[in-house]
Every structure is written in C-alpha cells, then in structure tokens.
Amino acid sequence: MRPQFLILAALVLASGLTVASEGVPSQEQTSLDVYLTWPAKHAEDVGKSAYQRGRVGGLFDTRLLKTERSYNYKLAATWLTPDVIRATARLQQLRSRLSDVEARTLVAEGEAVAGTVVIVEIDPREGSGIIPDDWEAILQSKERPAQAVRGTVRPELRGVKALAGVLQRNYDYDRFWVTFPLTREDGSPLFEEGDRIAQLTIRIINKEGRVEWLIPASIRGSLR
C-alpha cells in the first residue's frame, strides 16, 4: 500500500474522530443539563421544596387601639438556589415549548444575578394593611448567627423569568425579590463547610419572623 494513501486514511480517521467528539457533550455539560430531562412533576417538586412559610410577629399579638400598623404579618419565602432556577426554566420550557438553547438562556439570565436571590412574600394582618418601607431581610447560617448579611430589594428581577419560582402567585401577599451576597465583609463565604441550616430573618418595625432551609451543596462555600 502506498505511503501517501496511508497518510490520507489517517487524516480522514482523525478528522472523523474529532467531529464525533465535538458532537458529544462532556461529562460536565451532561451533569449541568440534566434538568432538561426532568418531567414536569419533578421540576415542580424541586421548586416547591424551596418554599417555606412563617409569620412576622407573635401568633397572639394584638393591635390594641392602634390601627396605623398591622399586628403581625404572614410570611412566605422561596430560595432561588441553582436547582430551583433550573426547575423554573424547565417548567417554562415544557409549558411554552422552548428549545434546549432557550431554556439554557433562561438559566444563564437567572444565574447572572450576583449573590443569591430569595422571593419574600408578606401579607399584613388587619391594621393598616401597609408594609413599611424600612423592613429588613437578613440571611445567615443558623449555626453562626453572628455572621449575617443584609438583603437588597431588587424590583427589576421580577422580569427575569427563571427567577419567578414554580408556584402560582398568591395575590394576598406583596412579593419582593431580595438579593444577598454569598460573601461576608471579610471575604469569606457566607455558608461554610459544616453549616447545615440557612436562616432568613424578616424584621418589620419591632417584630421578627424566620424561615429556614437546608443549605444545598451548590451554595455552600460559594463566593459568587
């Protein structure tokens, strides 16, 4: 067999292997894209697992003779972790018949927001029915409550589709998108190895309420 033919055959074979490998997603890509195979029920379950309910103020708080403020507030919160963002994008993909590329774009838009995002929902009980503008949201590890960060309300995130969550809106509640940095002032991660529970505290006037989540591995140790 002529040497020129052997060289040509080798080049063709190498070219074919290169094309084939480019068409197969890497192991990392496959693991990141697994949400694109989730059935609707699984995506809903992932999204609902991040939803917690609580109350700001005591159950038996009374407003006495004052009607300018509510005596307590119903509270709900959804932590938009990476899995919840993917679950939200997957449901929108299924419902709107989006392509995989479009679903990945939704995820990228959601994850482009710095820090981590929580949807905070508040419903005043009786009184004025008004939520004061100076309410506060604080996120911390339950194991290290002194190492906390304060949240920032970001109304513009309402338009980011992957940050909508999977639950249907309850219009009894006012809804706020709140971002929290995942690093403390000294540059260390908010959630470290050994931390198990994330605790969100909502403070309205002189009343506080809390909800808690297990800290997912995708968040623990993150410096984003």
Describe what you observe in this structure.
There is one protein chain. With 224 residues, this protein is of the alpha+beta class. The protein contains five helices and nine strands, in the order H-H-H-E-E-H-H-E-E-E-E-E-E-E. It has one domain. The strands form two sheets. A five-stranded antiparallel beta sheet has the order 1-2-3-7-6. A four-stranded antiparallel beta sheet has the order 5-4-8-9, with no helix packed on it. Helix 4 (82-96) packs antiparallel against helix 5.
Short description:
The protein has 224 residues and is of the alpha+beta class. 28% of the residues lie in helices and 28% in strands. A hairpin with a 2-residue loop joins β8 and β9.
Q: Low-confidence parts lasting 5 or more residues at pLDDT below 50?
A: 5-28
The overall pLDDT average reads 84
Derived from helix and strand composition plus strand pairing, the structural class reads alpha+beta
As a percent range, the share of strand residues is 25-35%
Terminal Cα span: 59 Å
DSSP E strands, number: 9
Helix percent reads 25-40%
List the strand order in the largest sheet.
1-2-3-7-6
The major β-sheet equals: 5 strands, antiparallel
Helix and strand layout, with pairings?
Blueprint: H1 3-23, H2 27-32, H3 40-48, E1 51-56, E2 72-80, H4 82-96, H5 100-111, E3 116-125, E4 136-141, E5 144-150, E6 152-153, E7 174-180, E8 197-204, E9 207-214
Antiparallel strand pairs: 1-2, 2-3, 3-7, 4-5, 4-8, 6-7, 8-9
Helix pairs in contact: 3-4, 4-5
Salient structural properties:
single chain; about 220 residues; alpha+beta; 5-stranded antiparallel beta sheet; 4-stranded antiparallel beta sheet; 5 helices; about 30% helix; globular
